Amino acid sequence: MAAPVFVSGAVEGPSDEPVLRRIIEERGGVVHRVQVQGGKPNLRRALPGYNAAAKRDPWLVLVDLDDDRPCAGELVADWLPTPSKNMRFRVVVRQIEAWLLADAERFAQYFAVKRSAIPVNPDLILDAKEKLLAIVATSRRLALRQDMMPRPGSGRRVGPAYTSRLIEFASDASRGWRLESAVEHSMSLAKCVARLDQLITAHR
Question: Is 122:114 a contact under the CB 8 Å cutoff?
């Protein structure tokens, strides 16, 4: 039996963490620790330290592209022009919601919406969070809509349990998000998985 390959990770927010964990675990790695930075500015400030640690140990860091740069390559060149050999700094195009929508079948089942409402290529969505909310607004389950949609007059973009509902979906391997299905519809996710595979294989 091959020795376990421990991979550390870092993400912007809580809803990114279960996605990162699922990617590492389902590609044969073992999650060592995950740093949730509470926002993109904090993640950027911490990145040099993670990159230094990646001189010795495997790391996977995820960041949303949002509308910060025209493409992922420009963001990587700006944030981390010289990654360490064990660093996998991957850009989610454009938000983690796009990777969750990439498993359209399970998303439709889990959130009780029509599969036809989910875009075939979620990487092309400019605002995946907005699109996800528009889809959930049509859910047949009142509790989901109440949890995820913003309350009138709240001034918030999302509902009170938006993040926790996404975490549930991303964490549920039996009924929720499937990595193997999502990679077929998200090129940015497929590239992330391929680069992580190379890293894990190199440490076997």
Answer: no
